[in-house]
Amino acid sequence: MTTSDPGPRVLVVEDEPKIAAILRDYLQAEGYAVRLLESGVGAAETALEWPANLLILDLQLPGMDGLHVCRALRARSALPVLMLTARIEEADRLRGFDCGADDYVCKPFSPREVVARTRALLRRHGDGNAAQLPGLRLDAAHHQAHLHGQSLPLTPVEFRLLDTLARRPGTVLSRERLIDAAYPDYRVVSGRTIDSHLKNLRRKLQSAAPGAENAIEAVYGLGYRFRPNAFET
Ligand code: CA
Q1: Omega before 62 cis (within 30°)?
Q2: DSSP letter (8 states) at residue 81
Q3: Using one digit for the tens of pLDDT, what is the confidence trace for 71-100?
Q4: Between 89 and 233, where is the model more confident?
């Protein structure tokens, strides 16, 4: 069990302390290691030296604005950047500028949306933390899963659920968090739907390797937990 294993590192550059704190709390709850900066000055350097896996960057910053930080970073790195902007028109204008940001979120935003977009960006760019467990191989880029060399015929939702659980072995994940992970389009889905996807997922694990279904454990009233030792035969 690697509960102390730090997750992907996210640097948040945001001068409004309340927004920065909310983002930090949500990202940490998701298992990310988070650092906060209030100014754009030196932000690109910090991102590279820490090093961060992803940068969340407010556009309006004291000292050096997000546009300049992004350009300074892009000169040296392909690190994914999620830009926070105050207005939707601003985001539209910025897309045309090609400052090198990978995605934009407009304020006021839902922290869950920022977390979901962070996760999607990291997945797209490869966060170097793909689930590496005995017997299980997950290829997020192609949505392919193998258990003990056997291909698992998973739906995209099942794949994302397995990937999410396998990345946090031993940690109880709530249904709400699993819904966020399984549905990147922020769809409203009931907990029962997640239960039924997990039931199907368990059945597929079982047919690939009897006993492997025990890797997904329901924790009454809380959610689900991944037990990787169920894969060790
Ligand atoms: Ca600001």
Answers
A1: no
A2: E
A3: 888 777 778 899 998 877 777 666 655 677
A4: 89
Task: Give SS3 for 52.
Answer: coil
Structural domains of the chain, with CATH: 9-125 (3.40.50.2300), 136-231 (1.10.10.10)
| Residues 41-53 pLDDT 10s | 999 999 988 888 8
Give the Å distance between the CA of 42 and the centre of ligand 1.
16
The CA 58 to ligand 1 mean position distance, Å, reads 6
Q: pLDDT at position 128, please? A: 46
Map residue 60 onto helix, strand or coil: coil
Alpha carbon of 60 to ligand 1 centroid (Å): 4
Strand 81-85, strand 103-106: pairing: parallel
Say if residues 110 and 208 touch (Cβ distance below 8 Å): no
Output the CA 123–ligand 1 centroid distance in Å: 27
Contact 168, 5 (CB under 8 A): no
Cβ-proximal residues to 81 (8 Å cutoff; 6+ apart), any chain: 54, 55, 56, 57, 70, 73, 100, 101, 102, 103
Q: Distance between CA 216 and CA 20 in Å, rounded?
A: 34
Which residue in the block uniquely carries the two structure tokens 């060399």? 149
CA dihedral for 197, 124, 93, 45, sign (positive or negative): positive
Instruction: Look at residue 206 in the predicted model and tell me its pLDDT.
Output: 94
- How is residue 48 written in tokens? 């590279």
Q: Is pTM, for the whole model, over 0.70?
A: no
CA distance 14 to 56: 8
